[in-house]
Amino acid sequence: MAKTTTLPTGHGQVQVYFTTNAPDIELPEEKRQLRVPTDVRRYGLSQILNSESMLDTSAPIPFDFLINGTFLRTTIDEYLVANGLSSETTLNLQYVRSLIPPLYEASFEHDDWVSSVDILSASSRAGKWAGQKVSPGQERILSASYDGLLRVWNKSGQTIATSASSSAGGHTSSIKSAKFISGTQIASSSLDRTVRLWKYTESEDGFSGELKPTLELYGHKGSIDSIDVHGPSNHIVTASADGSIGHWTSSKSSAPAAPSALLGPTSKRRKLTTSTSTPQRGPLSMISCHTAPATAAIFNPLDLTVAYSAAQDHTIRTIDLTTSTVVDTRTTSHPLLCLEALTGISTQLVAAGTSARHITLVDPRISVSSTQVMTLRGHTNKIVSLSSDPESNFGLVSGSHDGTCRVWDLRSSRQGTKDEGGGLVGEAVYVVERDGQKGATKRPVGGEGIKVFGVAWDKDVGIVSAGEDKMVQVNTGRGVTKSESS
Amino acid sequence: NIDPASLLPKLPRPEELKPFPTVCSTLFRGHEGRVRSLEIDPSGVWLASGGDDGTVRVWELLTGRQIWSAKISHDEAVNVVKWRPGKDAVILSAAAGEDIYLLVPPVVDPETDIVSRDLLDQGFGYATNSTQALTANGARKEPVAKWTRPGSRLEDEGVLLKITVRTTVKVISWHRRGDFFSTVSPTAQRSAVAIHTLSKHLTQIPFRRLPGIPQTVQFHPSRPLFFVATQRTIRSYDLQKQELVKIIQPGARWISSFDIHPGGDNLIVGSYDRRLLWHDLDLSTRPYKTLRFHHKAIRAVKYHKGGFPLFADASDDGSLQIFHGKVVSDLMENATIVPVKVLKGHKVKSALGVMDIDWHPREPWCVSAGADGTCRLWM
Ligand SMILES: [Mg+2]
Fold it and tell me: Which compartment or compartments is the protein found in (chain A) (predicted)?
């Protein structure tokens, strides 16, 4: 304890008790209790822990500290005051290795805006559904572009395959969303109001490949801005600007016939250019449940007979897909633009990005009456994409029209101000800028030229984001919100 | 010893009047030269704009992505773009020079596309000479308007109908049911104000004589009344009885624009002499409130029509100003008007700033068209 007595006097001290979940950095029982100055912050505490008399680390390990599940972001004194605690209390400080910033790795250039990205890796959802395990280094990145084309990339930024053009059965307008169903199948949705399924094949050497249209799905009357897939059951859900949620199967033989009124081109000009032999089918069901454009539809990862949808009508709806009925509606205060399930957390949560520049966390279980759990603040423009940390129950990345991706750790929170409507407010732990913005002192008005449209987080590949800069950008994703071995 | 300030009504602070737009959320760049006019479609998904480059453009509202564009004039500015009301069809109207175009942009599904095209085509069944009349000596008068197909180049792009009048059209205003629309050609003298019937391809001139140069017009949101603004007054007419109902006198020297509150009993007026005026039509023909916040001309004023007590004006000083203006149902009480936000960003070009504004049909978002060639979405 000599360490603490040599620290500057004139400040209060408080008794702390250090705990950790990581066995390799656990303190011996007799060193866990300590008196520390109350004006110390994370950095000071980290120094104390690393010191000779404590862990005696050969190279300093940066630590973060959790009190009651929330990161300490102030001095201890400020924490005590904010929480109405006396300095007589013993504070339980849980220490974890500091988070690692999501460092820039690479950018892949496109001809046009990139709306959506997905990843195929051994650990990704589609990778697990795939028959064969994706070997390390063979991961693939799927990008969907406003030029109407899908592209599959390897990690070195080489295009392995580009989808067929509109004259060869491809989309006739911008693609808004795309997902791997497996290592050989892809689904995409477009401003052209169709969902298309693609067979993806690669040459032996893995340096070239082909994306062939296999099925066109008709049923929506507006742009289809979001698609989610479930490989094992061949099911697909979509959200459209027409306010409805589509439920589809990728199986040609079990899909109903396409609604003839929605088939075919809308103008003479297009009639001449699209003559394809791709089979056309309709939805299993079309659920018109939103009163404004629907922006997201996802399967409940724990129960594939249930989907969640989000819309500009401010609601998150829970849909029973077996009966095609809405079983629950949660109304928020703002138009919702994207949705992600956070199943890792003890209570099941969904996160929705809003046009009002924040993310709202909602518990959609029917038994729960209080809806809003937490609000994540910091973006300066609409939030249009979300992806959860594949390695942590508390991590989340968001993509915004402000030109940034932000990484959130739900343990990093504070009490909201009156202006924010109170409640728990989370702040980003990292801000990922577009690489093209490097050195820029100000972001452009309205996110012009740098808007992020899509982001995906994969354990093997990292944080992959795409946007108006026509780039897919890869940042490291490991240890960003889950410290190694904690 | 009463402090006179204590007798003034206490205005709520802007923070208490949220939500209202505060920041530029999307920028729409593509027009060459001024953007003259813009409007969000009834579904709230698309933004239409028209400008000095003679093009009409349709953008994805949230992303700023241009989806479609058509050059409808090679030498004239597109002065106005307006969506036909209603969600049964998707029809955009635009005017450049003496030509009014009706078009179906390729953003709709095949079913809606057919419905929309049918609405434009059905009038071809009516006698084409119905807009013609005989003069006293039996000679055929030149028709006040010609309804034609604009030619295959434009038709291939979705521009399906052209109405040609005698002089430049500055204003288009639709009746809520979507069959009538009125246009204003300020320099056309007797035929300055025209009312067009889409289902019959018919153009009528409702006024024999106008008491000044018409600036803009609007149909009442619920009653069969029609409002015509000249430089100094706004007259309301009963369309069924064909008679003058009221003369509204804002006291402005040159009216640029006005808008009727969705409730139908209040009206805002903007003027080139920098004034914004609020009229309570039950109360008086004189303005209930005069607001002078801009140091340059006001070009456009607009109420929110989707349930928020908001209105906005646009000025040549490059800013738009957002106001909270709640109309109360109590007849004895007047609307409380609070300026809540000045939105800046448009650059002033050749002494012109913000040319037009519109509100989103559901959300407290507005859009503005600038002389700087950009449109902006504010949230
Ligand atoms: Mg009144």
Answer: Nucleus, Nucleolus; Nucleus, Nucleoplasm
